[in-house]
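hi!! sorry for the late reply, been swamped w classes. u asked for the two structures so here they r. pasted raw, havent cleaned anything up. first the sequence of the first protein and right below it the tokens
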Amino acid sequence: MNNTSSKAQDTMPQSEVTRLGGLFSWQSIIFVILCVTGVTVGAAYIFGATWDNQPLLEGQYYWIFIGCFTAAAYIALPAAPGHKKVPIYDIVAAVIALTVSFYFSAHAWEMVQTGWTHHILGTVIALLMLELARRSGGIPFLLVVLVLGVYPLVADMLPGLLMGIPYDFERMMAAHVFRAEGMMGITTKIVAEITLGFLVFAGVLLATGAGAFFIDLANAGFGRYRGGPAKVSVVASAFFGSLSGSVFSNIAGTGSITIPAMKKAGYPPHYAGAIEACASMGGVVMPPVMGAIAFVMAITIGVDYATILVAAILPSLLFYFGLLLQVDAYAARTGMEGVPKSQLPPARRVLKRGWPYLLVMVFLVWGLLYMRWEYYAPWYASILMIALSFLQRDTWMTPKKTYETARQIGILVTQTAAIILPIAFVVSALTITGVTGSLTSGLVAMGGGNIYMVLLFGVLACFIMGMAGLAIVAYIFLAVTLAPAIIEVGGLNKIAVHFFIVYYAMVSAITPPVGAAAFLAGTIAGAKPMQTSFTAMRLGVVIYFVPLFFLFQPSLVLQGDLMPLTYLLPSIIAGIMLICAGFEGWLLGVGLVRPLLRLPLAAAGFAFCFPGLMTSVVGGIISVVLVAIVWLDNRRQGTVISVK
């Protein structure tokens, strides 16, 4: 492993770090056995296999899944950063998790028929989950899970909005661990059914070399243009992030290659790190695969995954369009050139080597959108990818490659399970106490019935909840508290509201004071973390306002009447061009923007693309005047204008 990826591993959140050692170390072998068992039982359950002439009960499967991947997490995730060896207490924890979970699986029928529980062993599982929350998300995540998890014990003692139905310890633990409100409900369903196939598919793609292919493809397409390495970073991270669903894995995977290339091309370290952080963050909601949030949204809203996939297209493209414009503007303003064509891989050779990846991606989208296979589509795509791997010698699924693939899949599933499973306590606590309704009405009351005030409180809530770097946690919490309040006050489109929450929960990954993604990318780049974070905010400016646009104009998430797109989309595209020119000091096709004109140009661009008739007209008129001034300035000074 090179130095940059070593630094990445040292600074990544614990949920992204494994201590599996060598490929055939004892802990790696045990880890793979646990993960293969969990995935195999999962596939059998999803495809309706029977056991003793009876279908596998949901609770039976869930407890097998929980046992396998909780044990795997205690093998793979260290108790503290930097711990490379697996201590005896983690082995004991893994054995306990596996044994207790399998014992619960054996009693799944009794849980359904008679309400069977075991308070002592249930408490043991709860404690293991709390420690898993700490390892996967750190102390902030642990505090969220713990405080909200025990909230039912004191629900009747709290004032106002926080008052709820109280539960004693035994009833609370029964709900958290054994009932559909808790671990036998939505959170386990998300990771054990909805996302499992997609994680398997992502693991197969990555293990067969898809990450390197997408970097080569981006190089072949964009490397020769000015600022080529930065554009490669943006495009490659969009693809890679869509596959992995993880901001931090994306930064470590592509950033260890693209950040040094950007620095070599002339981008300052903080700028290179900021580009990678923004590009990796956007990949999480980039179709066609996206991260776990997309699947959580589908089940929460009650729509199929294809609806979420289609809704995500335009916001993602607008975000990456703005990011590419800023990258290009910096290169133009500083006189950068692209990588010589002789140093880039020929597109034909890249496509000849990597066409199976593109075919499989097309097959997946076809399966999701046309065939409506949903949970089954990624499993079929994985089988197709494995079959196609035998067409080229270097991607053959040899026994060793198969083992590596199983380990890669196990890492993805274990990391996802470690984050999502503990959230069951939060969801259970909010559900059984009935507090979600009071929180919703409270937010409406705080906003005085004014949709803009409610949105302001909502943005703050999204940002604060997302500060731990766990956007999915923020979404699950806010989907049941904030979303109903926004919909109630504004009568807004449900899918647009849920995307609004997702986007504003995500921005904490690049925004100070936390900015975990920007800090990681800055560490790889050798830059100051806070400087990298502020630069990432500027480069990712589009993601800060686009959610407001599609909230008030749901046609941008392809909902409702799509006719407004005919005039709205061109104005937004033009507005983004002006905003990026204002922030970066270069207007595409026109030239250098004087410092005094940069802020007015950005403000006019924002007004022009805001979905309101008056603001668009005023912003459009001012934009035309300012663009004319910039054009005349460059003509007088004889600036050479190029769009290359």
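now the second protein. again sequence first, tokens right under
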Amino acid sequence: MKTFAPTLLAVALACSSMESFAAVDLILHNAKVYTAEPGQPLQQAVAVEDGKVRAVGNNAEVLRLKESGTRVIDLDGRVLMPGFVDSHSHAVMGGLELAAANVNTQLLPMAELEQRLREWRDNGKARHGDILSVGGLPSAYWSQVAEFEQRFNQGEWADEPIVFVGWDHHTGWANQAMLKRAGINAETVKALKGEQLATIGHHEDKRPNGFLADAGLDPVLAQFPQATAEQLLEAGRAALRYNLSLGITAWMDPAANAAPGEPLFDFKPTAQTVGILPVYKAMAEKGELTAHVAALLVAHPRSTPADLATLDQVRQQFQGLPNLTLPGIKIFADGVPEFPAQTAALLEPYKNSKKYGELLIDPAHFGELISAADNRGWLVHVHAIGDRAVREALNGIEQARKDRQSGIAHSVTHLQMVNPKEFARFKRLDVIASMQLYWASADDSTMDLVQPYISAMAFQYQYPARSLLKNGATISGASDWPVTTPEPWKAIYQAVSRKGPKGVLNPDEEIDRETMFQAYTLNSARTIGLDKQIGSLTPGKQADLILLDRDVFQVEPEALRDTRVLKTWFAGREVFSADL
């Protein structure tokens, strides 16, 4: 065990002498306590009072705060950490998908996929009104578009609208019955221009082949019947239970003013566009929201500063609710790079199409929008996957920094490809890198559907965690659930190893586990605007804690991914306990 910081003990002793404090409710001791305070060594014990951390220190000093009504728990040397914070999670959508048909990125033989669809049709899991839908398809399926066309446009499926949605939620395939319902035909394709043509797959005569990406997928998803308020509320509850079981006590929901199925890539918000915010409001008002939710509002990529007033009208409807904040906006700068979508915006063209991908924002005016949001005190969270999108996102934030030094934590998320010229800009502009490092794997997606089509430079710097870290960037942990699993320990393992079924994805970009612990605690708390309240174990912050089943400081990297959370506390109250 490391030595203990006298500063924390001094605070504990000072607090114990203040008459204004009530009795300590809970003491957790005989543990390895990771506080997430920078430079702070491991501690042994935590005292909790009225939902907040009263003291952190060694066993003897913290146990001295025990009073007659204090509950004392011996943790038997286990690791205790702050609750994890996910800086990018579509939790309510994830809750809906927990009960829906999903292949969970399995690349099944086409005949087996068809049989699964039959089973899910019959048991109702694939049914959305009269539409059949299956999610979680790996991008490798999109090389089999011809077989999708042959298999699902005839026979028993000819008149059934069918949609297969990719794991990334940016791509999908729809049969002719579904395309007809969505109004997508050859005339639709003929009206597309430039990079937009990539959003609807088509034959030479412009007939759609069923493949859809980004804005091309939106009209299909818009045909789905809206989930009822009851269904959304149960999805929110299911998402909360699942997150707490994973030790996640806070998350940023980056599209909270959009309901499932709404067209995010051409989203035109109004004051009445409230999406899933009523779900969080209902849970908060019922006292059920035992997690912090930082809900962002999606702004159209080409919004003007004047458009922010509309979003503010939405924000005002959801103020003052316990554990719910609305700290800012989210903006899409581009799409995804996997073949055949290739909608991520690149600095060098895709080798096959010679196109650069679609930049959704207007570089000439994006900085004005970011600065206007910054001036309102709002954080901005930008989806940027391609290296050009990352550059233009940083350019926009740079404009806000030139206009004022607000100290607001803006962030860029995904960051699949980052040009080295951008590495040092993250620190200089105080931009947080919100990274889904579970994706940093040598797998079918990166090796087969991305590498052959992009430049060697872009491929070398896929998910460049170490390069960003060496240049002083702050990395926060994120999942993008339900795009992929929200399990933090799988992401932590992937960041440390970068191993996949096809080798190692640039081992030079591996980062250490302690950096990831910081990413999922204090760094993510700052990303969602709550680092003064949560993210580390220090006197005065809320007592959100998790107890682990293994010593994550000592186990081999492979053992990290299977780490289990034994208990989760939110504001000092136990909200999850594993079956032991």
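hope this helps!! also noticed smth abt the second:
The longest strand covers residues 324-332.
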